[in-house]
Amino acid sequence: MKVNFGYLLTISFVTALGGLLFGFDISVISGTITFIQDFFGLNETMKGWVVSSALIGCIIGASFSGRFGDRFGRKKVLLVTSVLFAVSAIGSGLASSIPVFVFYRILGGIAVGGASVLAPVYIAEVSPGEFRGRMGSINQLTIVIGISLAYYSNYFLLPVGENAWRWMFAAEAVPAIFFFFALFIIPESPRWLVAKNNKAKASQILTRIAGSDFAKFEINEINESLKGNEKRGTLKQAFKKKYRFILFLGIFLAVFQQWSGINVIFFYAPDIFAKANLGVDAALFQTTLIGVMNVVFTIIAMRVIDKLGRKLLILIGSAGMVVCYIVIGFLFQSGNTEGTLLLSFIILTPAFFAFGLGPTVWVVLSEIFPNKIRGVAMSVATFALWVACYILTLTFPILVELLSSAITFWIYAVICVIGFFVIYKFLPETKNESLEKLEKMLVKE
Q: What is the pLDDT of residues 60-72, one digit of tens each?
């Protein structure tokens, strides 16, 4: 099989721009917290609500985007998300009250939720098995690039002054508009087209990706997986007994990725660095280093994910995060928060995440669900992911205030230990297999 790698890479990267906006949108808040807290006079509880409000939108977007993607197509729904990203960016930057600000942050969250469901699904559906890990990891790479762009944008806009936070949010409109126009060059998902009885168009797309033999084989496999009298893509069907194991495994992976605590680092990094007595400028600069580590280790993961497999990367990353959280907790407990040691381990934690849970969870979630329920099952898992992220983000400042920073980070270490053993025992390896073959392996008839 001769794959048209340039074409595959192009359509995967365009789709993954949704991941870039996902990363930018959820991380831009980190550099604005100090300004927003002063501007609106927020206490710690209100700060947690304002930071986490976008995640309400993520939950809404994740809930409906899979169903809409199954009905209207992956591409059309991604186009809608690009518009929402742009509107949210401008609206958040212009907001003059907390209700207005929260409304536009929720609107952006809906776009994030939609992109987080459909971008990895689309990439998995167009990629041959032996390339799917690398192509799927592109989505995670663009997420961490988006996170880095937000950090650097925040840092370089800092000299604007007291209104810097408005420009930090508005800056997202630029990649959002680019994403909108770039989407017009990608085709619809061939698996969605087959499900809608447009086999000729699907064959044309698959032939362009990897030749006519590949197209014939894939269409036969897709047809086989879609046989049966069950209604396709309903929530009730996703919870049927034969899909139960794989659905709940997907939900566990999604929740574990968030309760590993990583978004505490992404969202509250400047706050954490402030506890190490860094000023705003220095804290934002240290935050940019998190973005660099994120990108570097995601690229390393992309190079090895189809060789080492998804499971091993998750185990290595989880174990590394356990060590980091334990050390960070002891440093806070002992009061040794000044100097480079705390900063080093805070920056190292996202590196382990980027090598393990970051790219692999999105790849695995896009692979394990059968064709009949992929859209709705991905929505269920991603819904669980954003609920978990919301709870994590909302509770972090409260836990720190009630229990201390040390105990909070040790809680995340315990969660990573639990996740390590569940993944070790229950997660099968999915590398180098077609989506239809994985379905035969994982569905319990």
A: 998 888 888 888 9
